[in-house]
TrEMBL record:
It comes from the Bacteria. GO terms for molecular function: methyltransferase activity. This is Methyltransferase. The keyword Glycoprotein does not apply.
Length: 78
């Protein structure tokens, strides 16, 4: 990471199907080794690309933290 903020006008890249090839959700979830009782915080959640699949895996809470005012991540019930 460079520490730079992602430019919100490039948010469509977060939905690009090629992203699944570069950052496969299933592989990321496998590497995280989450348990259903884990509490997870997604810092810089963007469009929820990982947040939403994580929320389906845990039975506790998933907290999202948007790192800039144009974040497209939305809060969902836990």
């Amino acid at each position: 990471m460079t520490g730079d903020l992602y430019e919100h006008h490039k948010a469509s890249k977060l939905l690009d199907p090629k992203r699944q090839e570069l950052v496969p959700v299933g592989k990321v979830l496998e590497l995280l080794k989450l348990n259903k009782d884990d509490i997870v915080a997604d810092l810089g959640c963007g469009n929820g690309y990982l947040t939403l699949p994580i929320a389906k895996m845990v039975e506790t809470k998933v907290l999202w933290i948007k790192s800039y005012p144009h974040s497209s991540c939305t809060k969902f019930p836990t």
